[in-house]
Amino acid sequence: MSPRTPLAFSVLAATLLLASCASPDPAPTTPPPASSSASVEPSPAATTAPVDDETPAAGADPTCDTIITEGTVEALTSQGWTSKEQELRIGDTLVEEGLMCMWADFSTPSDHGQMYGWGTVDERTSETAQSNLQRDGWLRSTEGGLVYFTEDPDYAIATDEDGFGMTYEFGDGWVKFADTKQGLLLIDWKG
């Protein structure tokens, strides 16, 4: 097995997952600024715009703040957590156009944190990475046209409620990584 970063926060991943799926925040308690007209009609665009679905500008590079949902970023930063960006590796395979984000309170020595990764992969890199994961004992599964590799739960430091620890998700031209399979749901970068 490849070396792992100690993590003991699968409960936080589940909490963040639930928080990101919750309804939008209630209306602010402060009154809106006074306007010159007595009655203001809301515009149809304001009432039909999707919540939490900001699309990065075309050609934008992924960052630790953009690969995961806005609600997840808010939940992590509200706890005083920040992110550190690293290169994305799948075992010994470097994902050239990828990043790994470690979220934690880096002001306090701890093994508590969350990891999220995303990158583009060509077919050859994807095949090599998947072959190496299988060789190293990661468990392969497929679901909805996607391929998952998760660490053997007997060796996992933290698991989600379904028993999955660190997991890679391979799609057409991209790969995601999270410290639990449920954590993959928080990664919404479209590339």
The gist of it:
The protein is α+β, with helices and mostly antiparallel strands and 191 residues long. Helices cover 20% and strands 25% of the residues.
Features:
disordered N terminus, 20% helix, seven-stranded antiparallel sheet, alpha+beta, 191 residues
- Give the biggest sheet: 7 strands, antiparallel
Give me the count of strands.
7
Major sheet strand order: 1-2-3-7-6-5-4
The gyration radius over C-alpha positions equals 19 Å
Strand fraction band? 15-25%
Per DSSP, the total helix count is 4
Characterize the overall form. globular
End-to-end Cα distance: 29 Å
Which residue ranges are poorly predicted, with pLDDT under 50 across at least 5 consecutive positions? 1-56
**Sheet/helix structural class:** alpha+beta
Q: Summarize model confidence as the mean pLDDT.
A: 76
Compressed to H and E, one letter per element, the order equals HHHEEEHEEEE
Characterise this structure.
With 191 residues, the chain is α+β, with helices and mostly antiparallel strands. 20% of the residues lie in helices and 25% in strands. It has 4 helices and 7 strands, in the order H-H-H-E-E-E-H-E-E-E-E. A 7-stranded antiparallel sheet has the order 1-2-3-7-6-5-4. Strand 6 (167-170) and strand 7 (174-178) form a beta hairpin.
